[in-house]
Amino acid sequence: MGLQDIRDRIAAATAEAGRPPGSVDLIAVSKVQPPDRVEAVLDAGHRVFGENRVQEAQERWPPFQARYDGIVLHLIGPLQTNKARAAVEMFDVIQTLDRPKLATTLARLADERGTCPDLFIQVNTGAEPQKAGVLPQDADAFIAEARRLGLPVVGLMCIPPVEEEPSLHFALLGKIAARNGLSGLSMGMSADFETAIRLGATHVRVGSAIFGERAYELT
Ligand SMILES: *Cc1c(COP(=O)(O)O)cnc(C)c1O
């Protein structure tokens, strides 16, 4: 457990997959973690973090940003349209673009601000009713629509169903990305990031394996 262990395992999985060193970015998922654990990871030199909620990020990160240079924040939880402005102000990357209304809102904000976070489109690879993301069969059209709006779409993101073999979902996400000319693949969490790296992940999102178990789970 811990940051160095995860870095070592990422490096090993990357090499084993025959991929170049450094081709997988580690996003340390700090949601709900106590500040002292986050600070320890910052002190160890890590700078890329993922948060699920805009408000939690707004409370947590400005003090750290005043003390540590080069922090990069990814939003990995669902984004309500009425939080979009706060999200583009707070985050460097938004991984959860998943519907036309949010795409339109982000495009309007991008026009107004002259800049936009990098975007991943979330795909609901398991077609789970309770989960966010575009359905796999709607992904090509939605990617095209986001591009037509001028949005900086850099890749796709998925969260496989807990009870299913993740490799099938990672492979599907890779296929959709490849046929749409997208190079970014955000997939793999504490339990399955090595599998995701084997299947082409460029970004893995690891929380509990770095920080320890969360005191409570977000729903
Ligand atoms: C919480 C979360 C993670 C990290 O989960 P762990 O199992 O703690 O590694 C990754 N991605 C998303 C979208 C999450 O919500």
UniProtKB/TrEMBL annotation:
InterPro entries: Ala_racemase_N, PLP-binding_barrel, PyrdxlP_homeostasis
Residues in Alanine racemase N-terminal domain copies: 5-214
Residues recorded as bearing N6-(pyridoxal phosphate)lysine in the entry: K31
Pfam families referenced in this protein's UniProt entry, alphabetically: Ala_racemase_N
Source species, domain of life: Bacteria
Cofactor(s) of this protein: pyridoxal 5'-phosphate
Keywords of the record: Pyridoxal phosphate
Entry annotated with the keyword GTP-binding: no
CDD domains: PLPDE_III_YBL036c_like
Entry GO MF terms: pyridoxal phosphate binding
Gene3D superfamilies: Alanine racemase
Protein family per UniProt: Belongs to the pyridoxal phosphate-binding protein YggS/PROSC family.
Biological role stated in the UniProt entry: Pyridoxal 5'-phosphate (PLP)-binding protein, which is involved in PLP homeostasis.
Protein's name in the database: Pyridoxal phosphate homeostasis protein
Organism: Roseicyclus persicicus
